[in-house]
Amino acid sequence: MTRATGPLTHRRVLTIALPIVLSNATVPILGIVDTGVVGQLGQAAPIGAVGIGAIVLSALYWVFGFLRMGTTGLTSQASGAGDADEVHALLSRALLIGFAAGAVIIMTQVWLFRGAFMLSPASAEVETLARDYMAIRVWSAPATIALYGITGWLIAQERTGAVLAVQVLMNGANIGLDVVFVLGFDWGVQGVAWATFIAEWSGLGLGLWLCRDAFAGRAWRSVDRVFDRVRLAHMAIVNTDILIRSVLLQAIFVSFLFYGSDFGDVQLAANQILMQFLNVTAYALDGFAFAAEALVGRALGAKARDSLRRSAILSAGWGAGICVALAIFFAVFGGAVIDIMAKSAPVQMAARTYLPYMVAAPIVGVAAWMFDGIFIGATRTKDMRNMMIISTVVYFATVIPLMAAFGNHGLWMGLLISFVVRGATLAWKYPALEAEAAQRPLDPAAAA
Q1: I want to staple 70 with a disulfide (CB 3.0 to 4.6 A). Which of 220, 226, 239, 325 is the partner?
Q2: Do 284 and 24 meet the contact criterion of CB atoms below 8 Å apart?
């Protein structure tokens, strides 16, 4: 087991965060390439199809995002407490959950996709292309979800360089295969799907190899340890709370895309392009949110309240700085990026119209993203769940009348309002997290 030591400094935060920032930077680049490659076809329908197909699958997969987040929180606390056996057992639990979840998605894909398109009023052409895309990509579901667990396990031990290696391999291969399959072989939307399928299984292979030290011991295959009833129950509670939170968060984003389809294919394509800007923001902030997860979790595992506070302050400060930089970048260069991503003039004009919302998004969303990292590291998941419920209720209560009054502008307003509410409610709960840090039981088995 790798145990990080040393003082909580800006350097340590950056050492954890920067590989994640670089790693995550390749993900929106991949989204831009996916969108840009099909955008070279000069039609709105393929862009919308890749957008809908990707967001439906991402929504299904990220429902299991609890695996990444829960694994990080639990593993960082076990690592901070010096419990190497539990660290290794957590990796096994995460892999088992990931493979099982992926298999369930594959077996139920017909009903899942049917349900998704019952909610979507997209044109027949967009729906047909999206179904072709999803029918291929779904077969990499076990690899994608298992990688959530591997990623969380590596982040918890501050091994973010390994996470970077996995992402560079996956997204580099995906981008290269996009160009070959779509522009070279003229496979269209299906070529994008095959590129992703191959890349995701390749990423899993590298991830397992990078975790090989854990497999050298015995704890990862100890039935008694891996399936310990008390620890499994604790993991289930943590993951269930995060699952509910993730479902609600995805409900917001999926409804956003489907609501946008009511305004036609051009508006749908424009929203899909701008979502890549939002992805850039989220992935850049994730680096510092993940640093908060690892450092806060370790501090809690060691019962070091002052370290917990310093971890939160340092990581959040860097996150805020990144957000200001991104807002400036979007304001200055956003229009040029839009023009590169889409060749259709109507799509370009529509995306430029709504670009100001992407300038505002990093500023209004920073608190939500950073507090998520802090609360995940502390495994204070009940608060995350409850504050997400409040945010979702506010979103749906505001977005419908806003759309009626302002159209697609109202849709973007509703999304940004949900960010503000989530950040504000988590900030309200933070003092209680700090107050309880020193009193929380370290080991759920011991507490039982």
Answers
A1: 239
A2: yes
Structure tokens at 339: 């023009």
For residue 3, the model assigns a pLDDT of: 46
| Residue among 239, 289, 296 nearest 80 (CA) | 296
Residue 123 has pLDDT above 80, yes or no: no
- For 331-368, the pLDDT digits (tens) are 999 888 888 887 788 888 888 999 999 999 999 999 99
Query: In 286-341, where do the E strands start and end?
Result: none
**Rounded distance, CA 174 to CA 197, Å?**
8
Residue 7, token pair as written in the block:
């003082």
6: how many CB neighbours lie within 10 A of its CB? 8
> What are the tokens at 220?
């990862």
Helices (H) and strands (E) in the chain — how many of each?
19, 0
Q: What is the pTM of this model?
A: 0.80
- The conformation of residue 184, written as its DSSP 8-state character, comes to I
CA atoms within 13 A of residue 392's CA, in its CB half-sphere: 18
Say how far apart CA 276 and CA 310 lie, in whole Å: 32
* Nearest of 350, 432, 337, 340 to residue 383 by alpha carbon: 432
For 18-48, how does the pLDDT look when each residue is reduced to its tens digit (9 = 90+)?
998 888 767 667 777 777 777 766 666 667 7
Closest CA to 211 of 423, 2, 38, 433: 2
pLDDT at 229 over 50: yes
Distance CA 379, CA 377 (A): 5
The whole-angstrom separation of Cα 210 and Cα 204 is: 10
Task: Annotate 158-175 with DSSP letters as a single string.
Answer: T-HHHHHHHHHHHHHHHH
Calpha distance 78→147 (Å, rounded): 20
* Per-residue tokens: 363: 């500023």
Residue 251 · residue 392 · CB < 8 Å: yes
CB atoms within 10 A of CB 404: 9
User: With contact defined as beta carbons under 8 Å apart, do 309 and 435 qualify?
Assistant: no
For the chain, the domains span 10-441
Q: Which of 319, 376, 356 is nearest to 68 (CA)?
A: 376
Cα–Cα distances (Å) from 447 to 157, 234, 441, in that order, read 24, 11, 6
CA–CA separation, 405 vs 257, rounded Å? 18
